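Severity: low
Component: inverse-folding endpoint
Summary: output formatting inconsistent between runs
Steps to reproduce: submit the following structure tokens with default settings.
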């Protein structure tokens, strides 16, 4: 099992910045990709950004140029630097990791951290 704990959420004004962190523990040697998802009230959870074990990244269109995902494999951490925040970025942000256990891909989720952007 992989355990994920997010931190760094909070309240920020439009145009501000926040940095989210996610610490992984447990079977960290089995982790492949890691990423960030978000869920706004009344909406489905959506992908924000993902990063492979080799550092290849992918972003949803609405955050390109504003958010940066990074990863420190030595520390088992993944980060999301969020700049130029907008009210529509308000959501609970979840850290995600996929692990290979035997022949099965297992998804792990953190508990979420609230990000609120005021207009």
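Observed output (run 2 of 3):
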């Amino acid at each position: 099992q992989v355990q994920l704990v997010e931190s760094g959420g909070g309240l920020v004004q439009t145009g501000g910045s926040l940095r989210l962190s996610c610490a992984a523990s447990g079977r960290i040697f089995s982790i492949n990709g890691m990423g960030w998802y978000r869920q706004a009230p009344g909406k489905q959870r959506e992908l924000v950004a993902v990063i492979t074990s080799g550092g290849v990244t992918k972003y949803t269109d609405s955050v390109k140029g504003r958010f940066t995902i990074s990863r420190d494999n030595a520390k088992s951490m993944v980060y999301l630097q969020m700049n130029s925040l907008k009210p529509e970025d308000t959501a609970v942000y979840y850290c995600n990791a996929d692990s290979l256990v035997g022949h099965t891909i297992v998804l792990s989720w953190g508990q979420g951290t609230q990000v609120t952007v005021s207009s």
